[in-house]
Every structure is written in structure tokens, then in C-alpha cells.
Amino acid sequence: MNISSSSSSSSSSSSSSSSSSSSIKKIFIDPGHVGNSFFDFRYFKMDDIEFHEGDFCFVWAEVLQKALLGKIELSELSRNNGQPSIVIANHEHQIRMSELINSIGTEAALKNFRVPKNFFPLKTTDQLLEAAVQNEADLLNRARIASEQTFDLCLSLHLNGDPTSLKTEKNGICGFTNHISKTHYLLFEKIIKNISIMTGLPIFKIEQLDEVSTGVFVDESLTLLKNISIPTLLIEGPFQNNPAELLLLNQSLNQLQAKGKVEGRLEQLTKAIVSAI
Ligand SMILES: [Zn+2]
Q: pTM of the full predicted structure?
């Protein structure tokens, strides 16, 4: 795979002062998904709201990066706004697709990639697999960038969602980690609990994954977690396909755009992380 980091990272910020009591100095912030016009699997259209998980998570990452100034030495984002960290060439795309189709088949591959097929009734399974393969390359590249540089921690920011239905009553917070130390695990738990407290949402249980502590799960099947070599906390914020929640998430983005103020969900999700670090 032709991996290039030329367009991989965006703004860095640093500060000479550090008020953090933890040993975490350098954080790689990964806004999950891509957003913008780029095809990805977390896109919702409800009433007059068009919402991309990737767009929200990018703004969340930027707000978080600002809020961490002075608390840690350095933070860097895994991608630029609305762009994957890498776009793979056509022939590489074809090679990976055939590999998957020949080994496990399209349906199983889509299942492994956690592509919610019913979100895109107009797309063929081949089109979905094509997008999933690009997504896989992007995630592998993000893992590579994070691992090659000297970050202490990766925070991968996501929103939750129910892949089985377009609208859901479910709402809650959860997270995933790779193999991490006890200290990092305590930080992870603290962040998840803080988000739950600040948003007033429960910690959500995902039954098929191994439960290691109330509502917090370790999972190795996620591409980023499986391929990254630094401690990584994948945070899943509120359910974006809960209509009431979608309004709150979208409102928060609009407030920031209109008034320049970090309020509502964006403020809660950011403060929950900053106060835990
Ligand atoms: Zn996500």
C-alpha cells in the first residue's frame, strides 16, 4: 500500500507551561471518520438536518485541542477538515477488494467493517465495500502516524449509533481501548464516567463485547485499535441517530458557528476529557 503522510496531519499546538499532574504530555487526537462530502458510514439526514459524525468529531477535536493548551505539551490531529488522512490509488483499492471478496466474501467483509448496510439502501454492496476499503486504508494510516511519532496517548473521538436502525430511542456513552496500563485504563474510565455525568446519559452496554468493568469494554476488532502501538482510548459519545440527541449535537455546532461559543454537547464532551487528564 502506497502510504504517504504528506496530507496526514493538521495543526499542532504547543505550550511551554504544563499544569497537568499526569504523565501525559503529547496527545494524538483522532477525529473519527471523515465527514464533509467524503462518503462515510456515519451520515444522517433527519428532517432538515444533515449530520456527519466526522464533521462533529472534527470540531470536537479542534475544541479539545484548544482546551488542552497549557495542560499538555503538544497535541496533533490525525487529519484535516473533511479529508481522509490518505486516499489510496485505484489499483490498490482493487487488489484489497478482490482479496476480501475471494477470502471471506463481500457480505462478511462489510460485517467485519461494521458497515450499517441499511443506512445506504441505494448503494450496492460493491460500492459499500469500496468505501469500506478506503476507510480501512485511512484508519491504518492514522494508526501508522500515531505509532511513528512519540505520542503518549491517542484519543479517538466518535459518536455512538445504532447500526441496525436509522432512528433509535437508545442513547448512551461507551468506549474501547487497546492493551493499556492500569493508569491509562483509570483515565479511560474517568473520561467515560465524566462524559456520562456531564451529558446526563447512561454508560451504554454493548453485549457482544467483553465487559471488563461496568459499561466499559475492551475490543480488539476495531482497525485503529488493532494497528496502533500507543495507548488508545476510543471514546463513543452520544447516539447520533437518536432524533432528540441529533438536535442537541447539531445545536452545539450551530452555536459555535454563530456565536463562537462552545456550549451544550461540545462543551460537555470536551470538559469531560480535559478535567480527567
Ligand atoms: Zn464512529
A: 0.86
